[in-house]
Design goal:
Blueprint lengths: L1 H30 L6 E5 L6 H17 L3 E5 L6 H8 L7 E6 L1 H11 L7 H4 E9 L2 E6 L7 H11 L5 E4 L5 H13 L4 E4 L3 H9 L5 E5 H10 L2 E6 L27 E7 L4 H16 L1 H9 L3 E2 L4 H22 L5
Parallel strand pairs: 1-2, 1-3, 6-7
Antiparallel strand pairs: 3-10, 4-10, 4-11, 5-8, 5-9
Helix pairs in contact: 2-10, 4-12
């Protein structure tokens, strides 16, 4: 009996010794993060608000993390192609997704169609909200309207075949907003999808598209110069950057109200220590005076949040828009 007990003690000691040796190795691997460049995938073409914000954060994170943080644009399918790249990446914190509120609408549309390549909750680990940026509805300078109510009157008088609205792609938030407006206002408009916000704005400035929208920063310069007209914001409150522009709720269209956000995600199963490190660096970048100054210039609000806050924001938005996407049969191409 004593001999058996001694043998068990030796085996237990060996097991504990092995675990003690392995544990520091795991800690060392995580504490060494990042040990190579970090890739931030923006699922839209360059030139839009999400791309601009990602690069603003990447610059500061490069300084604090000691490794290059590089933005890679992977546009297509309303942001779904870039998101899928990250969903399938190694969960080691070296590939991140920087997405916005369109993540909710495209994912829901793909799920309802039975074509979802990924799931927000299952395949991604929220890291942090980066910025709040309200969605801004705008009209071409050629449209005789000063707000959304007057645009609706213009659209009714013009007729369905004469009014075009643009979005950043089928299934995008602007696609959803345009279809909700058509339903609630009883107007007709033809949808013209674009691969990103930059070409959409160009066509609106040229007058070939009468109505559209994106995150406020995308069109703010054109609004201030008078080449585009602000119609409404989708946020719950007016924007400090454009305090004279009423919200959709103020103008009688509460079903269009949506929170505008941008945030960082990692692949699911990314170690908690890595998520915590990323979260600290993102919060530090959001608090940097130069980042705050630049965001204020373009009508954005830096955030820096816990992973739980981002998870809750996305879950609430998905629950809000799911019945709308189902009713309006939004498609992602």
């Amino acid at each position: 009996m004593a001999r058996t007990t001694g043998r068990r003690s030796l085996l237990l000691g060996a097991t504990l010794s092995t675990a003690a040796l392995a544990a520091p190795a795991i800690v060392r691997a995580q504490s060494a993060y990042p040990d190579r460049p970090v890739r931030v995938v923006v699922p839209f073409p360059a030139g839009g608000t999400t791309d601009m914000l990602a690069r603003l954060f990447a610059q500061r994170m490069t300084e604090s993390m000691g490794q290059p943080v590089v933005v890679e644009n992977r546009g297509g399918a309303g942001g779904s192609l870039g998101a899928d790249v990250v969903a399938k990446a190694a969960p080691d914190g070296h590939t991140l997704l920087f997405h916005n509120l369109t993540f909710s609408s495209t994912t829901v549309a793909l799920q309802l169609a039975g074509r979802a390549p990924h799931d927000i909750e299952r395949d991604f680990a929220p890291v942090s909200l980066a910025a709040n940026v309200p969605m801004l509805l705008v009209a071409s300078a050629t449209v005789p309207a000063k707000d959304l109510r007057e645009f609706v009157a213009f659209a009714k008088a013009t007729g369905q075949t004469g009014v075009f609205y643009g979005s950043t792609g089928p299934g995008s938030i602007m696609n959803l907003a345009g279809e909700v407006l058509k339903r609630d206002a009883g107007i007709g408009m033809e949808h013209v999808p674009f691969r990103g916000a930059a070409p959409l704005v160009q066509e609106m400035v040229a007058g070939r598209i009468q109505f559209g929208g994106d995150q406020l920063s995308t069109a703010l310069g054109h609004v201030r110069s008078g080449t585009l007209k602000p119609m409404a914001t989708l946020a719950a409150q007016r924007s400090a950057a454009l305090p004279e522009v009423p919200t959709v709720r103020e103008q009688g269209f509460p079903n269009m109200e949506l929170r505008g956000w941008n945030g960082f995600f990692a692949p699911a199963r990314t170690p908690e220590a890595v998520i915590a490190r990323l979260n600290r660096d993102i919060a530090a970048a959001a608090a940097h005076p130069e980042v705050r100054r630049r965001m204020e210039e373009v009508g954005a609000e830096p955030v820096g949040s816990s992973p739980a806050e981002l998870r809750q924001a996305v879950a609430e938005q998905v629950a809000q828009i799911r019945p709308l996407v189902a009713e309006l049969r939004l498609q992602v191409e």
